[in-house]
Amino acid sequence: MELVKNLTIDFFKDLLSSAGNGHQNHRATIKAVISSLINQDDNRKLNTYLIIDEVKKAVFSMDQGSAAGLDGFNVKFYQSCWDILKEDLLVVMKELWGGSRFPKSFSSTTIVLIPKKDEPHGWSDIGLSPFAM
Question: Could you name the domain of life of the organism this protein comes from (predicted)?
C-alpha cells in the first residue's frame, strides 16, 4: 500500500506542477500496481452491474429514521414504497455504477440557522443544522 500511496502522491505532484507532462507515465505505473492487487475474480465482481436484490438489501439495511435525501424523502419512505420505486432506483443506480457523473447537488449541503428560542439574543440561542438540498 505504501507503494500505491507514493505513486499517487508523485502523480498529483506532477499533474499539478507547472510542467505536468509526466502524468501519463505515472498513470500507467499506478494502474500496473493496482491491477496486481486485485485478482480476476474480485475485478469481475467489481465490474458487474448491480441487481435489484443488492439495491434492496442496501435500502433495507439503512436506518428508517435516516435524514432525508436531496428529494426530501427519508429511508422509511423508500422502504415503504419499495414495490413502486424499485425499478426506477435500479435504473439510477446502474447509471451511476456505469460511470455517469453524480449531479453536483448530490453532495451539496445548506447550513440553516434555527432559533432555539422565540426571541434569540445571541449565538447561544441559535442552533446550526445541515440540510442536504
Answer: Eukaryota
Angle at 73 between CA 79 and CA 98, to 5 degrees: 75
The CA angle 101-59-94, to the nearest 5 degrees, is 30
Q: What is the pTM of this model?
A: 0.46
Number of CB atoms found within 10 A of residue 86's CB? 15
Cα end-to-end span (Å), the chain: 37
Q: How many CB atoms lie within 10 A of CB 53?
A: 8
**φ/ψ (deg, to 5) at 113:** -85, 125
Instruction: For residues 40-48, give the mean pLDDT.
Output: 79
